[in-house]
Amino acid sequence: MNGSTIQKFILAPVFISTTLFCIFTLPVAIFGEESLTIRIQDELFFHGKVKDAAAPYLGLAMLISLGVGISNATVAGWQDSSRKSATIESELDTIEQALQEKEKLIQQLQVSTSELNTQKQQKLDNVVAYQEVKFADAASVPMAKKVSGTVVMEKPITVMEPLMEPLVVTQQPVLENLGI
């Protein structure tokens, strides 16, 4: 407990209760030696000095002052709790807004990633990569046609091993030149 909490929940209620009790007991201190007669519906209920009837009165004054002190501490606690709750709710709202913004960004990234993948696939579908092969006879070069995204050879290729030389690629792949 820090000083503010002690002051708020202990010292303030004790001070209020003590002050109220002093105010309630002030008439007993001032008029203690005077005579007092209490009648209820024309019947004599009490006759004597004020200080003789002070015990029940002081008990009631003590209960009232304690009730006011406890009520004060309760209200102070409620106000403190309400203030903390409002602060936490505002922080929670801020966090929720940030979370919603991040979710929107994630959705945008997912959409842009899927669009990028679609664009890459379209570019790959449009690219026909050829492998350089040397044939002995130019007439034996097969004709190729594209059927639904795949290249289909009309005539089978028959290549003899000694006629084929491997191709060594020394440049960047074709796909990079297309911006993929």
Please give a handful of descriptors for the protein shown:
180 residues; mainly alpha; two-stranded antiparallel sheet; 58% helix
Description:
With 180 residues, the protein is mainly α. Helix content is 58%, strand content 12%. The strands form two sheets. The chain has a two-stranded antiparallel sheet. It has a two-stranded antiparallel sheet with strand order 3-4. Strand 1 (35-40) and strand 2 (43-49) form a beta hairpin. Helix 1 packs antiparallel against helix 2 (54-126). It starts with a helix and ends with a helix. The model is unreliable at 128-136 (pLDDT under 50).
Rg value:
49 Å
Sheet/helix structural class: mainly alpha
The counted number of beta strands is 4
Poorly predicted runs: 128-136
Helix residue percentage: 55-70%
Average of the residue pLDDT scores = 76
Strand content: 5-15%
Trace the largest sheet across and list its strands. Answer: 1-2
Label the overall shape: rod-shaped
Oligomerization category of the chains in this entry: single chain
Tell me the span between the first and last alpha carbons: 64 Å
Please outline the major beta sheet. 2 strands, antiparallel
Order of helices and strands: HEEHEEH
Helix run count: 3
